[in-house]
User: Fold Trehalose-6-phosphate synthase from Microbacterium rhizosphaerae.
Amino acid sequence: MDRAEFVIVANRLPVDRDEDGGWRRSPGGLVTAMEPVMHESQGAWVGWPGQAGIEVEPFEFEGTMLVPITLSADEVELYYEGMSNDTFWPLYHDVIAAPRYRRVWWDAYVRVNRRFAEAAAEVAAEGATVWVQDYQLQLVPRMLRNARPDLTIGYFHHIPFPAYGLFSQLPWRRQVLEGLLGADVIGFQRVADAGNFARAVRRQLRYVTRASGIHVPNPDGTTRVALAKAFPISIDAQSYSDLAEKPEVRARAAEIRESLGNPRKILLGVDRLDYTKGIRHRLKAYGELLEDGRLTVEDVTLVQVASPSRERVQAYMQLRDEIEQDVGRINGDFDTMGHTAIRYLHQAYPRDEMVALFLAADVMLVTALRDGMNLVAKEYVATRNDNRGVLILSEFAGAADELGSAIRINPHDIDGVKEAIMTAVEMSPSEQGRRMRALRRRVREHTVTDWSRAFLATLAASKRWQGSGG
Ligand code: G6P
Assistant:
């Protein structure tokens, strides 16, 4: 196997397995983000194929060397469902659900992180750049640095980093901070996340921090500087805008409106079925507006796409039951023969269909209780070439830092969400245009390619700077 100058290490490979055992590019944003960088360098991608027990040798896919990591069924349960998604996920999203701290999960997390680090160390060429992605792999930067001090190591945290008062609950808080500090640059979505991380490092490890620099002691008594900074992720805005121009997609949008009985306004929510997304808060506000008679099902329909996610984790199973009960109640109370209050879809859709839904929707509801970024907000905006449509956006989503012209809400304030929905439904076309133009400008001027280039340029510069003796 050829060694690579540039290596991505992520929990998931950028491909999914199809029915006949072949591989197909997965739709995720990270895959798109990495495409240009991968093509410029001889890239490799280390990751899990997404199913337990699959053993596959490294193989080439569209010019990238893919290095599959095998996880046993036990490891999927302990490392992925347990430690990653029942401990870190809820803890880092402000304990909206209660994190569980289990030592067997932690042990598996360490073991699996080591496997990823070893695979990356093996595939990386002398002096290569390795970019580790997200909370499933927080120990990999340190493990890699120990094994391969010649590498330049970046890490990007796609989800929030919590306030120290919450982070300090973690029994393994020191190991996690030390793990992350193995990187030369540690990227976060928001300035506030980078600040929370630096504070945790000061409080827990007593290291000195200056602006975004963290002084990390080396084993030989010298120090190096690791950078902790915000690099808000984005989307490939042009591809969404192009899809929105396709005649088939536009026809599909009209068909969707028609099939919903041509309501005056369509409200839309698109989320993974996750308790961080505030889906129940949104249903509550909408149900009360119907109850109050301020909206009627003849006028308005809410389409809620909740794509299946982490279905073997208890908190997700419970949330699904609760949402389905809420939807059933609201529809039972308010549907008529010809109109429905909520069209609920527990399914995942290809990108074309999502864009058709975005075009059909007059109002996009993003009511996350906590979210690293929320790319759906950016995708909606990118498809609105007509400068129409209204985005309602939670201040607890990272996207709120950039999308100031959205209608901003606190999803916990149900009356506030109700008012925001009414404002959106009644907004004049000229006001929609004024806001949408500003939103679109931001999304078009800061794309996912800008994101990866900015991160990698900072990473390259940090290494040069360390190399010159600081
Ligand atoms: C979030 C995380 C990603 C994760 C994705 C889907 O966006 O930041 O790391 O891949 O959710 O979750 P899953 O558990 O299916 O990978």
